[in-house]
Amino acid sequence: MVFQPTRGNLPARFGPGVPNVPPIGPATLDAEVYRDPERYEQERIKVLNRSWQIICRSEQIADPGDHHVWEGHGESIVITRRPDGGLDGFHNVCPHRGARIVAESGTDARRFTCKWHNWTFTTAGKVSGVPDRPDFDRKRLEGLCSPAVDVDEWGGWVWAVLAGPGVAGPLKDWIAAEVRDDLAAFRMEEMKLVEKVEWVVDVNWKVAIDAFSEYYHAQALHNMGGKEAKDARHSTIHVHGRNGMYFVPFLGVLEDLQRTLDHTRYAICNYQLFPTAVANCQALHTQVFRAVPLGVTKTRFEAWELRYELEEGDDPEYLRQVDFFWEIYKAVVQEDVDEWTDVAATTQSSAYHTNILSERECVITHFHRVVDDMLAGGDGLGLEPKPVDEETVES
Ligand code: FES
Ligand SMILES: [Fe+2]
Fold first, then answer.
1. Is residue 287, in this structure, part of any structural domain at all?
2. End-to-end Cα spacing for the chain
3. Could you tell me the residue range of the domain that residue 71 belongs to?
4. 187-220 confidence digits (pLDDT tens)
């Protein structure tokens, strides 16, 4: 049987006692967060490099010597699969004169050679060979390595922290437990990559993350029907730790959802994985959207489509269904991406000062508060609103 996610012991996301929105309320957001070059530089150092980010699928570097070169926000890194099954990761920057060591992803590497002057490196990034070594200061070369990145795997994804081991704590604690456990019900680690689609867009990376952190735009931009829009009013939104998540009933199953309370089966489950990814899970298949910042107003936007494996005897109709819905989904994502050309056209406008956010856009509000906190030197935690009754008790 093709795997079918179920709610199991997860908390109910719908039904009695589950509010539609957390008590964050409407808010405003300064447009400078999308266009200030100095702020972008600070985000690179204090947010992007100090966070766990998705790099690639584990299956892309399955065997010893397989390696993945990843580039974004001015950084270049290499992740390699070790013979013991673990991963090594290091900055793809030659300590001789700064060239990129490895040009592209590949398989079966035993060592890497920087082609400018043929310095060689172990697959963990340690300098192992220097032509004409006696010509150099011996002390400068002793134990020389390219700086390590922290690397780990979860959900079938390879993740990395570019500022190095220990900076962001363990990966398992990076995503809030409530969000991580909910997302885990979809078993992304058992899924296979169907397709990855990329766009380069002239907007700040946060525009893309914002766009996938609310459902408000679906009615207008994606021409959602009246009944669907009415059911979508029953969606629920939650923030925990640095993350947000929301659940939107599928069309025509509101009664089933209210009866079973199984959101993994009857709702679109959307998980924001701070800072640069959003997982959009449905019982049938999952999309992961990943924003890779390239400049203050330039972003590589990636959509990854994942499906479950067929076992022997399973009905291949599942594959046809996945293909059918993924084609529809791609067209919907194209509408989102196209919309950003309108955002790009006015980013620098003298008339653009503020975003006005509704209470149902509160995952965006929370996300920007986490970014602000990390820019100020914090860890982005503890910013969720307290439940209303706790506040009442205190005051
Ligand atoms: S820059 Fe790499 S060997 Fe010289
Ligand atoms: Fe959309």
1. yes
2. 54
3. 53-152
4. 999 999 999 999 999 999 999 999 999 999 999 9
* Torsion angle, alpha carbons of 240, 245, 248, 249, to 10: -70
Q: Is the pTM of this model over 0.70?
A: yes
* pLDDT, tens only, 226-264: 888 899 999 999 999 999 999 999 999 999 999 999 999
Note whether 32 and 39 are within 8 A (CB): yes
Q: Which atom of ligand 1 is found nearest the CA of 117?
A: 3
Q: How far is the CA of 299 from the centre of ligand 2 (A)?
A: 17
Indicate which residue's Cα is closest to atom 3 of ligand 1: 117
The predicted-structure confidence for 15-60, as pLDDT tens digits, reads as follows 999 999 999 999 999 999 999 999 999 999 999 999 999 999 999 9
Ligand 1, pocket residues at CB < 6 Å: 94, 96-97, 99, 114, 116-117, 119
Q: Domain for residue 309, yes or no?
A: yes
CA distances from 92 to 121, 285, 362 (A): 11, 34, 38
Domain match, 138 and 185 both: no
Residue 19 within a domain: no
Amino acid at 50: R
Residue 143 sits in the same domain as residue 239: no
* Residues 32, 71 within the same domain: no
Best residue among 90, 92, 96, 128 to mutate for probing ligand 1's pocket (most ligand atoms within 8 Å of CB) is 96
The CATH number given to whatever domain includes residue 238 is 3.90.380.10
